[in-house]
Design brief:
Radius of gyration: 25 Å
CATH architecture of the largest domain: 3-Layer(aba) Sandwich
Number of strands: 16
Distance between the termini: 64 Å
CATH topology of the largest domain: Rossmann fold
CATH class of the largest domain: Alpha Beta
Shape: globular
Structural class: alpha/beta
Helix content: 40-55%
CATH superfamily of the largest domain: P-loop containing nucleotide triphosphate hydrolases
Number of domains: 4
Oligomer: single chain
Number of helices: 20
Strand content: 5-15%
């Protein structure tokens, strides 16, 4: 039976909470001060600690550092003084989650329902570590490079908690795969995982798609619609390209993250939600804040546990491992027995992969279609034009002090002109997805069209 430690200085509140936790199937120990709580920690290792923020001899966050194995113990902060700063600081210092007073019983039940799985998660992470040593795999992720080892260490620490994760990295580095790994190593693994590209949804529909709407709330709303938050309730919501979300919607998203409640369009009835957020962007988020593309308060709320995904060119020795894993996927899908030749692997390892793992996957698929995976002279890669070519890639010069938004615009316009209006090629050079490029061009409007875009 799982064990809970309840640290609360108010005797009536402590006894009421103890009864609720016992009803959820836990044995319990209680403490009214940090001193008593530390004594209880030495007597029995708890599976969950529910800690009041304000105690007579300190704060609940002071106790977090005393818990030896935070992956094995879920730490939940309880406070009547909730704020974004309090929540973020608690999560950064090792708390798994937080509850506000008066305690929402459904939220408490949801938190406790995930606690007994902590032992399973520890075993799963240990198994993945063994697999990494044997085959270079960490769950869905492939690679043994030092850069990826650092990512695996971060995932092993944060996944079993409830902390919000903010992924950054170039387009094509596999941010969604990392987000899925976070979900699959969490206590929410049996609940939904929903991946949303914020730049791929029409600005006119994104509020309805995100938060839902009631029947008749606007023209065409002929039925009630549950938004992404409700669809992912109990699980994980991956918000990719978060910097492409309209600013007015970022305000509402921040409110939902703070209150854990939402209201569908067309109603004032709040709905409790229990969703873990993993956000991602291929931009530098701080530059996006400076450029007015990402609200500073939302960035600080999301940036609880940042993880930077390295580009493929920085992952020494991983290209061959990933290529062989991709061939295994193709064989499994097609019932084939393809092998990849040493000559092909050598060719792959010499390429800089500006499109990262996505580009590598596309090339392996092309070789498979052409029947050249085992060839000693495979289809050549698209390589950058040498610097001493007769037609070098042109450059642009911007004066110091040029606003970031203007520099962003000029770079995109010039790149698209250089590519002859080929948006796919331009997006690849810029390291963004085609949908993001379309969204930027839409922002520029007729001025962009006047410069020859199509």
């Amino acid at each position: 039976m799982p064990h809970a430690l309840i640290v609360e200085d108010d005797e009536i509140a402590r006894e009421a909470l103890e009864e609720l936790v016992r009803d959820a199937g836990f044995t319990t120990a209680t403490a009214g001060t940090l001193r008593d709580a530390r004594i209880q920690l030495t007597r029995q290792h708890p599976d969950v600690v529910l800690i009041d923020l304000k105690l007579p001899d300190g704060t609940g966050m002071d106790l977090v550092a005393d818990i030896e194995d935070r992956r094995a113990t879920q730490v939940v902060l309880i406070t009547g003084y909730a704020s974004v700063e309090t929540a973020v600081e608690a999560l950064r210092r090792g708390a798994s989650d937080y509850l506000t007073k008066p305690i929402n019983l459904e939220r408490l039940k949801a938190v406790l329902s995930r606690v007994p799985k902590s032992g399973v998660l520890r075993a799963e992470i240990g198994k993945m570590r063994d697999e990494l040593r044997d085959s270079g795999r960490f769950g869905r992720l492939v690679g043994r490079s030092p850069a990826m080892q650092r990512v695996y260490d971060q995932l092993a620490r944060v996944a079993p908690t409830e902390a919000t994760v903010f992924l950054t990295g170039e387009s094509g580095t596999g941010k969604e795969l990392v987000a899925r790994t976070v979900h699959e190593l969490s206590r929410r693994r049996e609940q939904p995982f929903l991946a949303i590209n914020c730049g791929a949804i029409s600005p006119n529909l994104i509020e309805s798609e995100m938060f839902g709407h009631e029947r008749g709330s606007f023209t065409g709303a002929d039925r009630m619609h549950r938004g992404y938050f409700e669809q992912a309730n109990g699980g994980t919501l991956f918000l990719d390209e978060i910097t492409e979300m309209p600013l007015e919607l970022q305000v509402r998203l921040l409110r939902v993250l703070e209150t854990r409640q939402l209201m569908r369009i067309g109603t004032a009835q709040p709905i409790d939600i229990d969703v873990r957020i993993v956000a991602a962007t291929n931009r530098d988020p701080r530059i996006a804040v400076q450029a007015g593309k990402l609200r500073a308060d939302l960035f600080h709320r999301l940036n609880v546990f940042p993880i930077e995904i390295p580009p493929l060119r920085s992952r020494d020795g991983d290209v061959g491992l990933i290529a062989r894993a991709l061939v295994e996927e193709i064989n499994a899908e097609q019932g084939a027995h393809h092998t990849i030749s040493p000559q092909t692997v050598a060719l792959l390892e010499k390429h800089s992969w500006p499109g990262n793992v996505r580009e590598l996957r596309n090339y392996i698929q092309r070789l498979s279609i052409l029947g050249q995976l085992g060839s000693s002279q495979p289809e050549p890669l698209d390589v950058e034009r040498p610097s001493n070519s007769a037609s070098p890639t042109p450059s642009i010069v911007l004066p110091l002090g040029t606003p970031l938004s203007a520099a962003d615009r000029q770079l995109i316009v010039s790149t698209l002109q250089y590519c002859g209006g080929d948006k796919k090629r331009a997006a690849g050079m810029l390291g963004i997805c085609v949908k993001t490029l379309y969204n930027r061009l839409k922002e520029y409007g007729s001025a962009a069209e006047a410069q020859g875009m199509r």
